[in-house]
Amino acid sequence: MNVDGRLGEARTAYERAVFGGDTSRLTAAERGLDVVEADVALARGRILHARYLAARAAGASPAEDPAELPLFERAAELYRRAGDVRGEGAALFWTGCLHQVIRRDDDVAVPYLERSQRLAAETGDQAVEAEALRHLGIAAHTAGRLDEARTRLEESARLWREAGTPEGVAANMVGLAYIAAAQGRATDAVAILDEAYAIAAPREAYAVVAQIEQARAGIGA
Q1: 156 found inside a domain
Q2: Does residue 170 share a domain with residue 104?
Q3: Of 168, 115, 102, 114, which Cα lies nearest the Cα of 140?
């Protein structure tokens, strides 16, 4: 049900309770409003995260917006209360993403990412599962577990392909190129970056293209 539908249900529940004495719909209406509030909180948090990433990509050293984490945590709480497992998985992913990307704390991030990945797999949310696997791969790479990192990123890329999001595939290939270089597979690293560019450039995924060029310079490809 969309936002208008949930708000309509809440209005109907109110009218039936006030005018007809029927309170049977109030609890369901409240759950619906929890989901609406959670959707808004998650969307606001993602906007703040996007601003952080944009500032960092522009060469700044942005500070964490203190509103971001509470928004993700509030979304997770509301989805959980409403029994929305799919939504909860998404909110947990973004909570873990913040701890990893902004706070640089994989010890805190990984349990959130693992829980998110499990819930996304249970509910068939390929986009969130792909994101969670990508960031679990990043954590494994940071910890020096290169084979695990490669497996995570390859599985994430497979899900992105199935979901019809080639930009996500290209972004993962940047990570796979770094892994290939770290494993001494220099030729593979070059080929991976070439393929990533061929995917990203025609789709005007300029942020990914910038990551590809940075990777080329970093690994001498």
Answers
A1: no
A2: no
A3: 114
* Residue 8 lies in domain: 3-148
- Both 34 and 71 in one domain: the answer is yes
Whether residue 98 is contained in a domain is answered as yes
Q: Flag whether pLDDT at 4 surpasses 80.
A: no
Record the tokens describing residue 64, joined without a space: 């964490």
Taking CA atoms, 215 is separated from 52, 132, 160, 200, 219, in Å, by: 21, 22, 21, 14, 6
- Res. 1 pLDDT band, cuts 50 70 90: low
Same domain, 103 and 16: yes
The C-alpha atoms of residue 172 and residue 163 are separated, in whole angstroms, by: 14
pLDDT at position 13 is 87
Whether the full predicted model's pTM is greater than 0.85, yes or no, is yes
- Judged against a pLDDT cut of 70, whether residue 221 lies above it is answered with no
Sign, Cα dihedral of 126, 127, 131, 134: positive
CA distance 124 to 71: 24
Q: Phi/psi of residue 83, each to 5°?
A: 75, 20
Question: Are residues 107 and 63 located together in one domain of the fold?
Answer: yes
* Domain tally, the chain: 2
Per-residue CA distances from 49 to 15, 95, 100 (Å): 39, 11, 12
